[in-house]
């Protein structure tokens, strides 16, 4: 009835979880600062990202999960995907890297298409120094790429020559949950809702 979507969903969940576990297992000085994770309202993870060689450019696309912080921890993850053309992403050496995006607010997830332009390369280390904090002021999205056992910050610049898009994958959410991703995403209360 779900045309194999449930099997694909299980694979995507398993791979996304493995990607997060691999990042969590990195030494603190080579990972995402805990302070930054604590501030993130949404974490999206895309395992086994596919690199594409196009006629005049290089591109990447991936499918994964996005999870929103709530008053009780984290809400039910929803399926999402992204695709983009940009030189910055192709600096990752691995053929199938894991990409993680930290969203400092969740407002963009009110729509099915999420703006990921002007994404900042995340700092690496156990803590945020003063320069990191200043550089992250007003930033909406911070991104990382895991290539093998090395984590790097990844940047998306806003330009007419760069195409970037992240979306809620309702082709997966509807068969799995019986509803659209946004309905699942906002079904549980957030810290802001509790105030």
SSE arrangement:
Elements: H1 5-24, H2 34-39, E1 42-46, E2 50-53, E3 58-70, E4 73-74, E5 78-85, E6 98-103, E7 113-114, E8 120-121, H3 130-135, E9 141-147, E10 150-154, E11 163-168, H4 170-177, H5 181-185
Parallel strand pairs: 8-9
Antiparallel strand pairs: 1-3, 1-6, 2-3, 3-4, 3-5, 5-11, 6-9, 7-11, 9-10
How would you concisely characterize the structure shown here?
The chain has 195 residues and is of the alpha+beta class. Helices cover 23% and strands 31% of the residues.
Question: Care to describe what's here?
Answer:
The chain is of the alpha+beta class and 195 residues long. The protein is 23% helix and 31% strand. It is built from five helices and eleven strands. It has helices at 5-24, 34-39, 130-135, 170-177, 181-185, and strands at 42-46, 50-53, 58-70, 73-74, 78-85, 98-103, 113-114, 120-121, 141-147, 150-154, 163-168. Strands 1, 2, 3, 4, 5, 6, 7, 8, 9, 10 and 11 form an eleven-stranded mixed beta sheet that branches. The longest helix has 20 residues, at 5-24. The chain is globular, with a radius of gyration of 16 Å. The protein starts with a helix and ends in a 10-residue tail after the last helix. The model has no long low-confidence stretch (mean pLDDT 84).
Instruction: Report the C-alpha radius of gyration, rounded.
Output: 16 Å
Report the total helices.
5
User: What is the chain-wise order of helices and strands?
Assistant: HHEEEEEEEEHEEEHH
| Strand element count | 11
Mean pLDDT over the full residue set: 84
């Amino acid at each position: 009835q779900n045309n194999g979507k449930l099997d694909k969903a299980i694979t995507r969940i398993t791979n996304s979880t493995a990607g997060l576990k691999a990042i969590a297992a990195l030494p603190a000085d080579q990972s995402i600062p805990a302070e930054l994770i604590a501030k993130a309202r949404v974490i999206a993870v895309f395992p086994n990202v596919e690199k594409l060689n196009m006629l005049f450019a290089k591109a990447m696309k991936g499918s994964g999960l996005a999870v929103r912080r709530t008053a009780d921890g984290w809400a039910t993850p929803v399926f999402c995907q992204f695709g983009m053309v940009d030189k910055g992403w192709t600096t990752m050496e691995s053929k199938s890297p894991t990409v993680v995006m930290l969203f400092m607010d969740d407002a963009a997830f009110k729509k099915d298409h999420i703006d990921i332009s002007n994404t900042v390369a995340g700092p690496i280390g156990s803590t945020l120094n003063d320069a990191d904090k200043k550089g992250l002021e007003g930033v909406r999205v911070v991104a990382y790429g895991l290539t093998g056992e090395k984590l790097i910050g990844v940047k998306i610049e806003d330009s007419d020559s760069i195409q970037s898009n992240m979306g809620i994958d309702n082709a997966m959410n509807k068969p799995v949950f019986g509803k659209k991703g946004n309905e699942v995403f906002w079904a549980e209360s957030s810290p802001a809702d509790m105030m």
